[in-house]
Amino acid sequence: MKRKNFMCSLAFAFVSSAFIMASCEEELIGSEKANTPTNNFEQFWATFDEHYGMFEVKNIDWKAIHDQFKPRVNDQMTDETLYTLLSEMIVVLNDNHLNLYPTNGELPVFPGGVLSYRNGELKILKVQEDYDLEVAKSYTEAYTQVTENIGYGKLPDNLIYLNVKGTDGMKEIEKQMEKMMPTLAGARGVIIDIRGFYGGYDPASQYLAGCFAQSKKLYMTTKKRNGPAHTDFTEPAAWYVEPKTSKSYTKPVIVLSSRFTQSAGETFELALRQFDHVKVVGDTTAGSFSDNPNFELYNGWMFSVSVGDYRAPGDISYEGYGMPPDVFSKTTKEDLLAGKDVTLEKAIGMLHK
């Protein structure tokens, strides 16, 4: 009888404990809301409200954006209509690091290209038509791919063409650049082509830029959202570029940029721009610097949110605008089809002066 009472008491205690823990978990986490267009809209808006890092620098009233779009939301709207509405909200933020990834049906990734929203006019560049690596390589001799993302070749009159289209692992970059620097050292000038540099790992860009640094210089400060208020951020982190290899290249350097130069490609360019021996030729960059983790809606769609505020020296933000070149040049689709790279030719001509 004693044992029976003990077992009953134990069972009751276990069930009570489980009930209490389940209740606590529901209270702490909150029950997941139903997958409705209204709930997906509210979750989308609230995630940006909590995590987006550039409301202040872009002077965006996010509550007003909510109130502007909310009347168009109802639980009878189709996936296509919801997709269009959320895409329009992304456009208002004018941020190339924001993407919407539908996971059902045949809806495409938005924007699926380089977004430009200026003076109320929207342009989305879906395909890059101002650059072709194969055309650029045709100007060189003995082109060598030294890593997955870095290659170089010789140009006439003792110039070097260096192409960077992304970031490799740090150890690989350090090893290969140390090997390459003696070859670059003998060149009269170097052209670094980042028109196809769509992003990667910022510390790798920082190291690579250091191979062309004359001294240690501040080139960027970053901070990340860390609280519910739009002004809640981590303490700013200072990023410096400084000589990284045994002998940095400090003779004339020309960087080739385009609207498709993004993210780690832009931080790489930003580091190089701190030095007088570097000039930039090409088009304005994409204007997308911040980290952008993904979040999920109740319907399974994924979307990315820029959580940082990245600034150039002088507290300048290029987010949404991009960095303008020192000398504007744009190769057309027709030029490339004719085997001609106008921007590369302009850079070669500048180094001949």
Order of helices and strands: HHHHEEEHEEEHEHEEEHEEEEEHH
Give the biggest beta sheet.
Answer: 7 strands, mixed
Could you give the distance between the termini? 104 Å
- Helical proportion, percent range: 25-40%
In the CATH hierarchy, the third-tier topology of the largest domain is known as 2-enoyl-CoA Hydratase, Chain A, domain 1
Q: Please, what is the average pLDDT?
A: 91
CATH architecture identity of the largest domain: Alpha-Beta Complex
Give the overall shape, derived from the CA principal axes: elongated
- Beta-strand segment tally: 15
* The level-1 CATH class of the largest domain: Alpha Beta
Counted up, domains total 2
In DSSP terms, counting alpha (H) and pi (I) runs of 4 or more, how many helices? 10
Overall SS class: alpha/beta
Strand arrangement across the biggest beta sheet: 4-5-6-7-10-11-15
Strand content: 15-25%
Radius of gyration over all CA atoms, rounded: 26 Å
Q: Which residues form runs of ≥5 with pLDDT under 50?
A: 1-30
Can you tell me the CATH superfamily of the largest domain? 2-enoyl-CoA Hydratase, Chain A, domain 1
What does this structure look like?
By secondary structure, the protein is of the alpha/beta class. It has 2 domains: 37-125, no CATH class; 133-287 and 322-352, 2-enoyl-CoA Hydratase, Chain A, domain 1. The protein is built from 10 helices and 15 strands. The chain has helices at 2-29, 37-51, 62-69, 79-93, 133-137, 170-185, 202-210, 264-272, 333-337, 342-352; strands spanning 100-101, 114-118, 121-125, 141-145, 150-155, 159-164, 189-193, 217-224, 237-241, 253-257, 278-282, 294-296, 302-304, 308-311, 327-328. The strands form 4 sheets. The protein has a 7-stranded mixed beta sheet, with helices on one face. The chain is elongated and about 65 Å long.
